[in-house]
Amino acid sequence: MKKIGLYFGTFNPIHIGHLTIANHIVEHSDLDQVWFVVTPHSPFKKKSSLLDNNHRYQMVLRATEEYKKLKPSDIEFKLPQPNYTVNTLVHLQEKYPDNEFCLIMGEDNLKSFHKWKNYEIILENHDMYVYPRISKGVVDTQFNDHPKIYKVDAPIMELSSTFIRKAIKDKKNIRPMLPEYVWQYLDEMNFYKK
User: Fold this and answer.
1) What is the DSSP annotation of 140-155?
2) Residue 129: closest CA among 157, 159, 158, 109
3) Intra-chain end-to-end CA distance of the chain, in Å
4) What fold is seen in the domain 2-159?
5) pTM score, two decimals?
6) Which residues pair with 3 in a beta bridge?
7) 8-state DSSP, 12
8) pLDDT tens readout for residues 148-181
9) 63: buried, middle or exposed (CB in 10 Å: 19+, 13-18, 0-12)?
10) DSSP string spanning 47-116?
């Protein structure tokens, strides 16, 4: 049985912060792989600056190609919208019964985790690996010393996709913040420049 960590995000675009955290967690825990689950654009939200699902998936694919333990996943593209993590987990468990799935999230997400749909069911059936983030607010006391929640001593990466998109629009050089193939793809496609 493989133990897979699921790292959900829009990855708009994926950057070295995402890769550093995922790689750190897979190398310093009992996980066999980390899957980057690319969250689809909700049909209920206005388009905003979110790139098309397939373009974001392509960037994750390119970013993870050289890492054997990191994989892209478009599983949520095929599920009904709006989608909830609890549904994705059920779907994955049915599709890959030989794998054990865990969640990877930043501490900022853990602070609002009690508001997630069926969060108790998620915790009953899945381990959670939480990496540090600088953020306001406090973690609900029910999650302190929880047997299913593992705090991971990953590097604190305060790099955001929002910052990168704005910097590209402002014609700044952000090349060191992106995996090389992702930077090439963005540049070729002229993404985020307008």
Assistant:
1) -GGGTT-TTEEE--PP
2) 109
3) 46
4) Rossmann fold (3.40.50)
5) 0.94
6) 100
7) T
8) 999 999 988 889 999 999 999 999 999 999 999 9
9) buried
10) -TTPPPHHHHHHHHHHHHTT-TTEEEE-GGGGS-SS--HHHHHHHHHHH-TTEEEEEEEEHHHHTTGGGS
Q: Residue 180: enclosing H or E segment and its boundaries? A: helix 180-189
Retrieve residue 72's tokens: 């892209």
Q: Are 105 and 130 in contact (CB under 8 A)?
A: yes
In the block, tokens 């929002």 appear at 162
Q: Where are the domains of the chain?
A: 2-159
Whole-angstrom distance, CA of residue 59 vs CA of residue 54 = 9
Distance (Å, rounded) from C-alpha 42 to C-alpha 162?
A: 18
Residues 10/161, Cβ–Cβ less than 8 Å: yes
- The β-bridge partners of 101 are 4
Closest alpha carbon to 76 in 54, 45, 44, 107: 54
> Encoding tokens for residue 166?
């704005």
Q: What is the pLDDT of residue 42?
A: 65
- The pair phi, psi for residue 19, each rounded to 5°, is -65, -40
Q: How far apart are CA 149 and CA 159, in angstroms?
A: 24
Q: Which residues are paired to 131 by β-bridges?
A: 106
Alpha-carbon distance of 174 to 183, in angstroms, equals 9
